[in-house]
Design a protein that fits this description.
heterodimer, A: alpha/beta, Rossmann fold, 4-stranded antiparallel β-sheet, 9 helices, 10 strands, B: mainly alpha, about 80% helix
Chain lengths: ~260, ~240
């Protein structure tokens, strides 16, 4: 496993990441690699550490131990700030501005022309509603404004925390098609979700549960290992440890530090 | 500092205000109405309005910008926009300068209008003239902004941020010499007033009221207030952490 991981060309490399949040351990020494030019899904139940891992990748999480490397630099390093786009889980845009004003503000901060802000709004399907105040939009529209602000400037790495939550199936399909396009153009996307039917759209999956990685593989390999076509069932099998050798990483975790 | 990010931030903050007509109306009209009220409450003893009126012109921008900035920063923190801004190439100084520029412009409008009402309609006499009064009002606005920005780091909710106003502002108002001359205070209180920035802001306005020329004392007081702005902004910048627990 280590050898295989080591050979992957990783846009994001996480080694021995330990994070403590609010007096409890949120991540228990995580190792994973997000290959460049892929859509990697970060899945698992709420409270499992997904957002903490994503915050560590964009460099806003104070970490206890371990390293996070993005495009060969320490996560959060100044040169990365124009190369990594981040969408937080909550809608972190200004509700008292229009969608266009929000996107143009983030374009200005990234140093790219306003036309790229309009293009990003078009990509998330909001071109027609760009002049509406974000505070008056539906939850799904607000989430897309937030996504557009992350897309502005075409970052090489996109870190998206539950970007499709609350969206209808048509929009979700369109956004996943957009994510695939971005990866084909060379972008690296790390996307969290707790909706298992989105897992099949990713090239790689990382399943995080209670601060530990319980699976890190392609959807096909996870299906093979578990003998389940449905990924939700496959994950349940992994989590319950039924009919499956324990994940080698899980063993390492049990060794006292 | 990157001018584009600073200007974009100032434009964004003003854009947010533009959509909030009621706040704009309150910011601009409340000081004028309070001055009118003050003038006629002391109708029987006009010397009170003549003495305290100029100080009020400096106090309004201090208080309103303190409140507006601390609430705005608490919102940036709790909505996640601050975390997001700090993942962009924007520097912390760009954010602070952007806010200072936007709220400085609001203070200019507020002080301009309040001064027009006080010096024009209400016949308030300030020896140094309206330009000096408006300039001092903008300096006071920056002071309120800088202190509000720093203290907002200790507020986790908007309720708490509002409560910091009486805690941080009222003692300064009591001690700054507005209500009673500082020479009459007991030593301990006078020493306290010596280290509070609003004391120097009020001293500067007193100078402006009494002297037609820009005196050395006025310049010194203004320099002290500006120094306090820089110190509070530096402390505020230290509270803008990229990495949080």
């Amino acid at each position: 496993m280590e050898i295989e991981v080591g050979t992957v060309d990783g846009a994001v490399e996480v080694r021995g990441l330990v994070v403590d949040r609010g007096g409890r351990r949120a991540l228990h020494g995580i190792d994973c690699v997000v290959p460049a030019g892929t859509v990697t899904g970060l899945l698992g139940p709420s409270g499992g550490g997904k957002s903490t891992l994503l915050r560590s990748v964009v460099g806003v999480q104070r970490i206890t131990a371990g390293t996070v490397t993005v495009l060969g630099l320490p996560a959060g390093a100044a040169p990365l700030r124009s190369r990594v786009g981040y969408q937080t889980q909550e809608v972190s845009v200004y509700g008292d501005l229009s969608a266009r004003a929000n996107a143009r503000y983030f374009a200005a901060l990234q140093g790219v022309p306003a036309s790229q802000a309009d293009a990003a709004l078009h990509e998330v399907g909001l071109a027609g509603d760009a002049d509406l105040l974000v505070g008056r939009m539906s939850g799904g529209q607000q989430a897309r404004v937030s996504l557009a602000c992350a897309l502005v400037g075409r970052p090489e790495v996109l870190v998206l925390d539950e970007p499709t939550v609350g969206l209808d199936p048509v929009l979700r399909r369109d956004l996943w098609a957009l994510f695939a396009d971005l990866a084909r153009a060379g972008g690296t996307l790390l996307i969290s979700s707790h909706v298992m039917d989105e897992a099949g759209r990713c090239e790689r999956l990382i399943l995080l549960r209670e601060g530990r990685i319980v699976a890190d593989d392609t959807p096909a390999a996870i299906r093979d290992r578990t003998g389940r076509h449905d990924l939700e069932e496959a994950f349940l099998r992994i989590v319950e440890g039924a009919g499956l050798a324990p994940d080698p990483r899980a063993d390492i975790e049990e060794v006292p530090r | 500092m990157t001018p584009r990010a600073t200007l974009a931030t100032a434009d964004r903050v003003l854009g947010q205000l533009r959509h909030d007509h009621r706040t704009v109306a309150l910011l601009l009209l409340v000081p004028c109405l309070l001055l009118v009220l003050f003038r006629y409450v002391y109708d029987g003893s006009p010397q009170v309005f003549d003495r305290v009126g100029p100080l009020m012109l400096g106090l309004f921008p201090f208080v309103t910008m303190f409140l507006v900035t601390s609430i705005a920063m608490v919102r940036e923190r709790t909505s996640g926009t601050l975390e997001r801004l700090l993942t962009t190439p924007m520097r912390k100084l760009d954010l602070l300068a952007g806010y200072a520029l936007a709220f400085g412009a609001v203070a200019l409008a507020q002080a301009g209008l309040a001064s027009a009402v006080a010096l024009g309609a209400l016949g308030l006499d300030v020896a140094a003239g309206p330009a000096v009064v408006v300039a001092l009002a903008v300096v006071n606005a920056l002071l309120g902004m800088a202190i509000g920005l720093f203290l907002s780091a200790f507020a986790t909710t908007e309720f708490q941020a509002v409560q910091f106003m009486p805690a941080a502002v009222l003692p300064q108002v009591l001690l700054c010499g507005l209500l009673t001359p500082r020479e009459n205070m007991v030593d301990v209180l006078r020493w306290a007033s010596d280290v509070l920035p609003l004391t120097y802001a009020v001293d500067a306005l007193n100078e402006a009221r009494a002297s037609a020329t820009v005196t050395g004392a006025l310049a010194l007081d203004t320099a002290v207030v500006l120094g306090c702005c820089v110190a509070a902004l530096a402390l505020g910048a230290a509270t803008l952490r990229r990495r949080t627990p």
